[in-house]
Design brief:
Chain C: This is Cation:proton antiporter. Chain C: It is found in: Cell membrane. The structure holds 3 protein chains of 3 kinds. Chain A is mainly alpha-helical. Chain A has a domain of 223 residues. Chain A contains 21 helices and 2 strands. The longest helix of chain A has 32 residues. Chain B has 5 helices and no strands. Chain B has one domain. Chain B is mostly helical. Chain C has one domain: Helix Hairpins (Orthogonal Bundle), CATH 1.10.287. Chain C is mainly α. In chain C, 62% of the residues lie in helices and 0% in strands. In chain C, α1 runs antiparallel to α2. The chains are: A mainly alpha, B mainly alpha, C mainly alpha. At the A-C interface, α6, α7 and α10 of A face α2 and α3 of C.
Amino acid sequence: MSWLLVFPIAIPFATAVLAYLWRNGAEGKWISLAGSIGSLIASGLLMSAVLREGVIAGQMSNWDAPFGITLVADYLSAVMVVITAITGLATAIYAMGEIEARLERLGYHALFQVLIAGVTGAFLTGDLFNLYVWFEVMLIASFGLLVLGGSKAQLDAGIKYVALNLISTLVFLSGIGLLYGLTGTLNMADLRGAVAAVENQGLVTVIAMMFMVGFGVKAAVFPLFFWLPASYHTPSFAVSAVFAGLLTKVGVYALMRMFTLVFVGDVGFTHEILIWVSVLTMVTGVLGAAAQTDFRKILSFHIISQIGYMTLGLALFTPLALMGGVFYLVHHIIVKANLFLVAGVAQKLTGDTDLNRIGGLYKSSPWLAALFIVPAFSLAGFPPLSGFWAKYLIVMASIELQAWVITFFALLVGLLTIFSMTKIWGMAFWKPHPDGIEPVPERIPAAVRIPMMIPIVGLAAMTVGIGLFPEPFVQFAEVSAAQLLSPTDYVDTVLGVRGMAP
Amino acid sequence: MNSIIFSAGARILVALLLVFSVFMLLRGHNLPGGGFIGGLIAAVGFIVYMLACGTTQAKAALRVSPEALAMVGLLIALASGFVSILFGDPFFTGQWWWVGGDSYATAVVRPNTVLVFDVGVYLVVLGSIVSLACAFEEEV
Amino acid sequence: MESLTAIIVGVLVAASVYLMLAPSFLRFLFGLILLSNAANLVIFASGRMTEGAPALVPEGASAPTGVVGNALPQALVLTAIVIGFGLLAFTLALAFEAYRRLRTLETEEMREAEPVEGGEETRA
């Protein structure tokens, strides 16, 4: 069984090696594509095993937990791995059209696959120090991808991104050190009991805050998000799509894991802070977006505001809220990655991403307009798209708690999201192009256009699918929220079972 | 650095360092040593050579590009973890065999996957450190 | 020993924060290096200090005899040092490349990705 946990991580690594060795020819992109399909199959198998048997744990090298390296998949981990593989496949297809041979020779596909491996590893690991290592794998790959090509704006953005992310990593690492000094273990399942047994709970709360800051920078919550809008609009579109979809969500996932499994001793303090951080994140993100006129910068600020909803789901800490948080996480990855992919096509058609300098997309490319509407309205929370259910669950959770201020802000931010999306719609799609260019699809050669459109269509179809048939997804989110709130299964599987059958 | 003494001495030093690095790699499992430190020593050897004879010649001496070396090393290390699937053990479980002699303790050769992993690490470290040094050498 | 290490960590963090608040990216980078060393020391100290007792198993035995140092934090620190070294090497290369292209490492002047509102004249 433990092998099912290994393949989603090992396949991208092996693909990265092969893609690097064949980076000079046309083989690289096909290797990357094949690897992404392989990861999707592997993560699908993992998912079906988790659905069949509940939490799965594997002890690498046959060293028992809590001493060895543990990989664990519960419902949340499994769904995150699957959604990572889906996003990976979508961007791998997109990259076949967008990424030029120059970037391929610099090792684009290898870095991309290492990034996917790092993200998957972070979702599957059951050990804090390994989480740190996976974060670093992910970071180093993302640094490379961000500055690949080396334009001035990319270098500038890279400096800011690298600097702030390294600080967060070091805060996280110090937190690990202190936690180890306090409890003598770093296995997450083992930590649950060990942290509860610590006499000086004040110290635990201090360490919890260090983790909140460390993960908060990764997740881009208020007031730690400044690296995100400074960098996400500079790399190629495939890169910013996968960044937007996955990287911040790893931070959110880590917050969800640590603040449901380990740091639950002082919920009244830690989660209360998280509530107001979330609300401020939502509001500042959406207001920041209102001030921007660049396609990708608007979307970047919206990542921040949407992160607020997810952490709010965690912070409210009720079954309904967590359920909404999990649902939001999954929905948002699909939608946000898709919006960045659409932005890439729009840029190729009109020649720019500054909304003042582009236009006319609706008239010339109505299909692209329709494909923009789906994720954009889903982001804003229009029924019957996936975003509606995600927002509905979070808002219902806040109403259930009679937290009217939170309900008000959740609804207000949704409204302001519509404002931003209609701004993009009005300026990029509706008004004519200021230079009189007609951005017809034929402006992009078919060999580039087709691989760029396939993932957009696919992800939009998933958004509509989740929106029309939310029942299985909501049920899934419900079970994973229940697992998060009472992780006895998780703890027992990791600690209790010795050397599960391979 | 155009010093005759240095470049003549470097040849001997490089050879010694490379032999020493393999020695370190092989004694690694039960004694201090291993793939990581072995790879570092080998990388130091190449950096000395680079200082003495220039980047181009050092790269030529390595035959393949250092990045490719690191990547192949990663693949070897990864592959060593998959051997245990044949024996029903979890990922990366060390597999040990012995050839010649009556028992493990008296065996002549003891092939194992742990050494293969260390060889992979050796190549990764050697390749990445040398490529890093090349990158800095070319820029400065 | 632990309290001495704790003081060193405190001094390192204070120095790194001071350096990181400087307007030059290079100073920031030096601060980052100090902070990374401080974090490594924290991990090392959290495994408790034992003097002069390396975690080595004597020849012929299968477990260490007597009190030995905690090997796990040492392994963690080694990993963290290696990763930190890799990241810092990358950052240094990035800083060098940025300096070559942008001709500055003053963070106030690095506005390529986020131009100042109002355009060129404010920058010149």
